[in-house]
């Protein structure tokens, strides 16, 4: 796309099917490298990646040549095949349907990268829903009272109503009302 300039930063979050703790620490580096290859193979720039046993965080600088939903589909399909080929889990591994996607300005990148890099520390004290709410509050977003990623114990049955969550089933919206970030 000649003469096209974009500055689009997207934080993608997706979970293991049933929010099970299936991703073992010993496989983190290899799986993250594999996902990085998928992202860069799609012509996108990966800025940060990290995971916990039950979910993944990826921060990209998105170019307009690939739709976000196509990129995430390719990452999830490729990585689940990678995990299954290596038999890292008993049975068949799969990701939960859908994903969360949150956009940020360039000035917020260091905060988001630090958040992604510190997943292990954050996860020891807070659940995924509370951590997402905390980062959004830190970045001055007005989050809704529900988070798109259901806990292991609960099921959310409302469909998303705004653009930050792409899923046909079981996610409530987590998009802020109107513009997410207040200008100073």
Notes on the structure:
- The chain has 184 residues and is an alpha+beta fold.
- It has one domain (8-166): Transposase IS200-like (Alpha-Beta Plaits).
- Helix content is 33%, strand content 17%.
- The protein is built from five helices and five strands.
- The protein has helices at 28-41, 68-86, 109-117, 119-125, 128-138, and strands spanning 8-15, 45-52, 55-62, 99-104, 165-166.
- It has a five-stranded antiparallel sheet, sandwiched between helices.
- A hairpin with a 2-residue loop joins β2 and β3.
- α1 (28-41) runs antiparallel to α2.
- The longest helix has 19 residues, at 68-86.
- The model is unreliable at 140-148 and 150-184 (pLDDT under 50).
Concise overview:
By secondary structure, this protein is α+β, with helices and mostly antiparallel strands.
Number of helices: 5
Shape: globular
The biggest beta sheet is recorded as: 5 strands, antiparallel
The structural domain count equals: 1
Secondary structure: number of strands: 5
CATH architecture: 2-Layer Sandwich
How far apart, in Å, are the first and last alpha carbons?
33 Å
Under the CATH scheme, which class? Alpha Beta
CATH topology: Alpha-Beta Plaits
The SS-based structural class is alpha+beta
| CA radius of gyration | 16 Å
Low-pLDDT residue intervals, each spanning 5 or more residues: 140-148, 150-184
Indicate the proportion of strand residues. 15-25%
């Amino acid at each position: 796309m000649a003469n096209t300039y974009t500055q689009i930063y997207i934080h993608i979050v997706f979970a293991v099917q049933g929010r099970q703790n299936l991703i073992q620490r010993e496989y983190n580096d290899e799986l993250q490298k594999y996902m990085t290859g998928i992202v860069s193979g799609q012509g996108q720039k990966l800025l940060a990646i990290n995971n916990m046993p039950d979910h993944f965080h990826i921060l990209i600088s998105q170019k307009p040549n690939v739709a976000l939903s196509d990129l995430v589909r390719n990452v999830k399909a490729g990585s689940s095949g990678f995990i299954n080929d290596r038999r890292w889990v008993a049975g068949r591994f799969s990701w939960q349907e859908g994903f969360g996607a949150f956009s940020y300005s360039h000035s917020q990148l260091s905060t988001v990268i630090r958040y992604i890099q510190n997943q292990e520390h954050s996860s020891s004290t807070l659940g995924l829903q509370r951590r997402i709410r905390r980062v959004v509050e830190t970045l001055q977003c007005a989050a809704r009272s529900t988070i798109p990623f259901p806990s292991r114990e609960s099921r959310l049955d409302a469909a998303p109503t705004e653009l930050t969550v792409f899923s046909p089933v079981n996610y409530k919206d987590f998009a802020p009302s109107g513009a997410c970030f207040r200008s100073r």
